[in-house]
Amino acid sequence: MKVKKETLFPKTKIQWLWENMKGRRVLYVIGMLGTVVYNILQLTVPYYSGRIVDLFLSGADAWKNMRTNSGLFYHLLILMIVFTVLRGVIVYGDCMIYEHVSQTVLYRVRNFLYDKIQRQDMTFYSTYRTGDLMTRVTGDLDAVRHMVAWVIRMVIESFSLFGVVAIYFFYMNWKMALSLLIISPFVFFIIYLFKNKVAPMHAKLREKLAQMNTYAQENISGNRVVKAFAREAYEIEKFDRANKDYAETNKETSMVWLKFFPYVESIANLMPVVMLAVGGVFLIRGELTMGDYVAFSGLIWAIANPMRQMGNIMNEFQRFSAASKKVMEIYYSEPQIKDALDAAAHPNRFDGKIEFREVSFQYEDGDLPVLHDISFTVKPGETIAIMGETGCGKTSLINLIPRFYEPTKGEVRIDDIPVQNFRLSDLRKQIGLATQDVLLYSDTIEGNIAYGDSSIDLEEVEKFAKYSAASDFISKMPEGYDTVVGERGAGLSGGQKQRISLARALAVRPSILILDDTTSAVDMETEKQIQEALRHLDFSCTKVIIAQRISTTMMADKILVMQHGRITEMGNHEELMAKKGYYYELVQLQTGEDLV
Ligand code: DUT
Ligand code: MG
């Protein structure tokens, strides 16, 4: 597994979020303004209650005021109720806006990521584990959504509440305000220290989650292997460990705040004490009215709560930071193999000439080249067979034709045009590939065969099934072509899966058909039938067939024998027999075996 280097992104996290809010930005700004407004409205209740206290309850003229000016009393009371209701309405609308915008961002980025992942090349898939990718499009993205829906809102809420109340405090009585606010900078300092401690924890936490998801994913999709080796207990324990690890890290992360929490809490709790002590003195000295005192104490929470909330916000902010980094890594990733800028459109069929010119190849994460100076040509319509012991580079070789990988040296050409000059879609549409590991979708057999070209009708699907000697067993199934096969083709035998995969490759009527050990699990008789059918397809097609059986390779126009990434023998059956080399020995071995 390759370790990814730290990537630099073209945008900061917040810029990136803003970019993905396109179309909803105005709405979001309205939402943010709404947050400011409803927090300002929080002041109305203490303000009016302060005035009511001063005018009608505590002042010397309280009773007189009440008798002569009861209209104002009711007026203030009604205003208090109106503002409270108004505030409720704004909060409601505001929540809707945040939710709407965050869901839009989530939807947009998730689709974009899925699209990105789909278009990546093979190297990407061998770099990232499925569980890790799944974590990015689920958990990590949810942290991003949470940022838009909650964290930003809380930041604005806290700061606007704090700011407005601070201004109001100074407006009422600057000395009292100063006594209350003088300790607040300490909170920022504590939060800053907290941030430095908690940031790496969130990065760690996120890795643990991905690890746990990877175990779960690999286990569920690899359950057959687990069962075959009776390793259930081991796997359960492995998952349990990952789960515990994640839970522990979660606890550890929460504990970080607990270290800082007492300080912030003490400062917040100090506020009412200061209020009582300093406020009391000011009250006695007549520097503060009883109404102002009520207003101050009624709003003290608006100073203390944002301080308490700070830790929470910073925590969530760091969670977003760790998660968004993972999301942006995929968001800004570019496949190495993509259409060349000057790639010409080539919508037509290929003649089918394939040429390798001194091609060498090495996997990015590999230490040694797996292909060395491979040169050969296949004429249109010909069949070429590739043989060689396991691990000699056969699959690697054919993967260069549809440009799944790029050669490190040399050139692969189709119809005398280097493959890089085609658009990837044009190139791959003309190639029918049956891969070595057969992967079928959980769909009907018909759906699986018609995967590459959904426009073909059942009659044609049946024809391709006949070519691949699959029609017999399919028609024997109770639901025939409508039989739904399980995930990865569960419910079918290895040979049956291979034949459906062959039918799927044929169904696109490719100009070039590549079969990677596609008939290895079918019996000799069936294989003969398939080879015969392949010779009489109703469309022209160059065939590249990787096979181990002489019966398959014998009829090929050209046979390549590979050893350790090099072509050691090349020619048709007769020529190679005459050469009395590896191929000859293989024939001896296989025909000898057949006689036993
Ligand atoms: N290899 C990698 N990374 C990969 C795939 C293969 O390093 O993603 C190595 C393993 C092997 C060599 O490349 O040493 C050739 O592998 P290939 O799959 O091409 O071998 P094969 O001839 O197709 O073997 P088999 O007959 O087992 O399918
Ligand atoms: Mg292979």
From TrEMBL:
Transmembrane segments: 26-48, 72-93, 150-171, 177-194, 260-284
Lipid bilayer topology: Multi-pass membrane protein
Domain ABC transporter: 354-589
A GO cellular-component term linked to this record: plasma membrane
Sorted UniProt keywords: ATP-binding, Cell membrane, Membrane, Nucleotide-binding, Transmembrane, Transmembrane helix, Transport
Molecular function terms, GO-annotated: ABC-type oligopeptide transporter activity; ATP binding; ATP hydrolysis activity
Highest taxon of source: Bacteria
Pfam families recorded: ABC_membrane (PF00664), ABC_tran (PF00005)
Compartments it resides in: Cell membrane
SUPFAM superfamilies per UniProt: ABC transporter transmembrane region (SSF90123), P-loop containing nucleoside triphosphate hydrolases (SSF52540)
Domain ABC transmembrane type-1: 29-319
Identification of the protein by name: ABC transporter ATP-binding protein/permease
Organism: Roseburia faecis
Lineage: Bacteria, Bacillati, Bacillota, Clostridia, Lachnospirales
